[in-house]
Each structure stands twice: as structure tokens, then as C-alpha cells.
Amino acid sequence: MKVLITGGHLTPALAVIKELKKHKDAEIVFVGRQYTDENNLTLSYEYSQIEKLGVPFIHLTTGRFTKKFSIRTILNYVKIFFGIIESFLIIREFKPNAVLSFGGYLGFPISFVAGLLHINVFIHEQTIMPGLANRIAARYAKKVFIAFPESKRFFSSHITSIVGNPLRNEIFHSQDAPFGDIGQKPIIYITGGSLGAHSLNVHIENILPELLKKFVVVHQTGNVAEYGDYDRLAKISLEYKNYIVRTHIFDSEIGWLFKNASLVVSRSGANTIFELIALQKPAVLVPLPWSASGEQKLHAEILQSHHVAEIFDQKDESLALLELILKVYANVETYQHSYKSLQKYIIPHPEEHIVKTILSQS
């Protein structure tokens, strides 16, 4: 049984891969982005994580769907065309029995070609507002798994199954403190996702002196060379034992960090939202303004409407972010208690349901 996995949402993909590997007859390959960008040969985070699992990784170059027309639009559609050709060659060589896509621009060409070749296509849609790539690919899908019940209206009901979002087990298990002597102040975990968030990094830098008076700050910056955020902030961290700067937070560290952090400041991608709900962590959310169909803002509004998080617009002044952080921290227990109304979104072991369906229907 050969399963090709692709798409832009890594965390649920890793959870499903680990579940698939329990089945000895399952042969897995992952198709994704090997480098952080086309002009930078720094290996991507997804490549390093897939490699750790011992799963073969195949690099794919393709383009993104864009809504506004420009020269870049033409270049993107040319890249998509060549991405489809490259996907055909990959599928012809690997000969999968099933393709599982976790969405995004990387998932489209593989799903499209697999559908044309009558290979079983399965899609997992994490977000509340599916992107164009997944909505098109769903036309060729045998089954669409969704995380948010609200996104069911975008897909044919007879192929859609609400399974929730696969979460990494590591967030539930705390190991020894990974950061050494950081003092006794309450901890804030700041993250812009696996790639980091430049604007968030700048805002945190602006209010850092005030934050460090009251908190231990663990700051995951990403490692985008264009901005040099990590290098700049790492130098600042040498002056403070209560400021920890990392390009990434590893699985061996994340459980301890989530357990001990009083609150989280982050983007509002689907993975983050589900992890916050599962762990009932109060948060200040900074939606990515140009996320597909405004999905991150919609995710953040769900948590805000249940009074478990506040929203910061990255166009606002940094001091407004500081005020929200202090507000949430001052009312942490109230925010935590309000999470009870959101537990309906947490469905146990969705990765098991996904794997069982793929193996039984392929």
C-alpha cells in the first residue's frame, strides 16, 4: 500500500504519518518544499521533520493561486503548469494507491494529477475557510476530512467527514525544563508559526524592555534570512536570562513550554487554534492579514467570541499589543475557564480515523 502525502499544513501531516507508520504494509513518501524559498538553499523545517521520521522526501516546485492580477500572477500560473508536469512524473515513478493532501498551493498539482489518473485522493482541510486550491482539488477527492464543522458547506456532503484536527502528541507531555535557569517570572510563549512572523517579531522587540520587567519571554522567531530577525534578537537575548530566542521550538520542548506558559502570543493558523483549545491556553492572537480568504482572522474571532483570547491587528502600535498581553495575564483564570465552551472542536484521535479510511478505501 503506497501513500503519497503532500500539502502545506505540516503538523497534522506528521501526526498522520506517525499513525500510518504503525502499519508495516504502508509505504509513504512526502512531496513538499525542501528549501525555505527558491533563492535560499536553507533546508525547510518540513524537510527536517519529515527526514527525522525516515520518510522519503521529494521536492516540488510550483506556483500559488492569486486573486489580484499582476506580472507575478502570470509567473505563478506558469509555475503551476510546470508543477503539474513535475507531479505527473512523481506519481508515475512512485505509483501511489492513495494521495493525501493537507492543502495549500503545494497540495494542488499532486491532487489534480492524481484525480486525472483515477488515483484515490483524500484531503484534510484544517481551516474554517478553505483555500481555492483545496476547493478545486476536492472535485477529484474520494473523501474530504474537515477540522471545523463550519467549513462543511464548501464541500459535497456525501464525501465530507468532520474529524477534527490531528494534534502532535508532544504538546500533552512535559519533559524536563529545556531552557536552563530562566528565573521565576511567569512565562509568555511568542510564536509566529514554523516560519516565524517578521511583523510580530518587530512588535515584540519594541516592547521587549517592558515585557522582561514582568515575564520570562520565550520567543520563536523563525529563520527567514531576508529579515535577520533571529540573529538580531539572539544578540539582545545575551543580555537577559529571561529572554529565550529560538528559530524553532522542538517537539521535545513544546510540552514543557505549553504547560508552563501563562499565555501565548501567536498567529492564528488552524494548528495554533486547535492546540490552544486543547490545552486551554489564554492568548493574544495576531492574524496574518493576507491569509487565504481571511481565515486567520476568522479563527481568531472564534476564540475572541468565546472570551478566551484577544486580537491584535499588526497595523496597530506596539504599545497596544503590550496592553493586551497585560490584560490577558491579569485575567488568566477567567480566560481559561471560558475554554469549556470550545471543547466541541476537539475530536479524539482524528489521525486514526483518517488512516483507517484511507487504508479501507484504497
From TrEMBL:
<keyword id="KW-0808">Transferase</keyword>
<dbReference type="GO" id="GO:0009252">
    <property type="term" value="P:peptidoglycan biosynthetic process"/>
</dbReference>
<comment type="function">
    <text>Cell wall formation. Catalyzes the transfer of a GlcNAc subunit on undecaprenyl-pyrophosphoryl-MurNAc-pentapeptide (lipid intermediate I) to form undecaprenyl-pyrophosphoryl-MurNAc-(pentapeptide)GlcNAc (lipid intermediate II).</text>
</comment>
<keyword id="KW-0573">Peptidoglycan synthesis</keyword>
<dbReference type="GO" id="GO:0005975">
    <property type="term" value="P:carbohydrate metabolic process"/>
</dbReference>
<protein>
    <recommendedName>
        <fullName>UDP-N-acetylglucosamine--N-acetylmuramyl-(pentapeptide) pyrophosphoryl-undecaprenol N-acetylglucosamine transferase</fullName>
        <ecNumber>2.4.1.227</ecNumber>
    </recommendedName>
</protein>
<comment type="pathway">
    <text>Cell wall biogenesis; peptidoglycan biosynthesis.</text>
</comment>
<dbReference type="InterPro" id="IPR007235">
    <property type="entry name" value="Glyco_trans_28_C"/>
</dbReference>
<dbReference type="GO" id="GO:0051301">
    <property type="term" value="P:cell division"/>
</dbReference>
<feature type="binding site">
    <location>
        <position position="168"/>
    </location>
    <ligand>
        <name>UDP-N-acetyl-alpha-D-glucosamine</name>
    </ligand>
</feature>
<dbReference type="GO" id="GO:0071555">
    <property type="term" value="P:cell wall organization"/>
</dbReference>
<dbReference type="Pfam" id="PF03033">
    <property type="entry name" value="Glyco_transf_28"/>
</dbReference>
<keyword id="KW-0132">Cell division</keyword>
<feature type="binding site">
    <location>
        <position position="296"/>
    </location>
    <ligand>
        <name>UDP-N-acetyl-alpha-D-glucosamine</name>
    </ligand>
</feature>
<comment type="similarity">
    <text>Belongs to the glycosyltransferase 28 family. MurG subfamily.</text>
</comment>
<feature type="transmembrane region" description="Helical">
    <location>
        <begin position="103"/>
        <end position="123"/>
    </location>
</feature>
<dbReference type="GO" id="GO:0051991">
    <property type="term" value="F:UDP-N-acetyl-D-glucosamine:N-acetylmuramoyl-L-alanyl-D-glutamyl-meso-2,6-diaminopimelyl-D-alanyl-D-alanine-diphosphoundecaprenol 4-beta-N-acetylglucosaminlytransferase activity"/>
</dbReference>
<dbReference type="GO" id="GO:0008360">
    <property type="term" value="P:regulation of cell shape"/>
</dbReference>
<dbReference type="Pfam" id="PF04101">
    <property type="entry name" value="Glyco_tran_28_C"/>
</dbReference>
<keyword id="KW-1133">Transmembrane helix</keyword>
<dbReference type="GO" id="GO:0005886">
    <property type="term" value="C:plasma membrane"/>
</dbReference>
<feature type="transmembrane region" description="Helical">
    <location>
        <begin position="74"/>
        <end position="91"/>
    </location>
</feature>
<keyword id="KW-0328">Glycosyltransferase</keyword>
<keyword id="KW-0961">Cell wall biogenesis/degradation</keyword>
<feature type="domain" description="Glycosyl transferase family 28 C-terminal">
    <location>
        <begin position="187"/>
        <end position="337"/>
    </location>
</feature>
<dbReference type="GO" id="GO:0050511">
    <property type="term" value="F:undecaprenyldiphospho-muramoylpentapeptide beta-N-acetylglucosaminyltransferase activity"/>
</dbReference>
<dbReference type="InterPro" id="IPR006009">
    <property type="entry name" value="GlcNAc_MurG"/>
</dbReference>
<keyword id="KW-0472">Membrane</keyword>
<keyword id="KW-0131">Cell cycle</keyword>
<feature type="binding site">
    <location>
        <position position="194"/>
    </location>
    <ligand>
        <name>UDP-N-acetyl-alpha-D-glucosamine</name>
    </ligand>
</feature>
<keyword id="KW-0133">Cell shape</keyword>
<keyword id="KW-1003">Cell membrane</keyword>
<keyword id="KW-0812">Transmembrane</keyword>
<feature type="domain" description="Glycosyltransferase family 28 N-terminal">
    <location>
        <begin position="6"/>
        <end position="146"/>
    </location>
</feature>
<dbReference type="InterPro" id="IPR004276">
    <property type="entry name" value="GlycoTrans_28_N"/>
</dbReference>
<feature type="binding site">
    <location>
        <begin position="6"/>
        <end position="8"/>
    </location>
    <ligand>
        <name>UDP-N-acetyl-alpha-D-glucosamine</name>
    </ligand>
</feature>
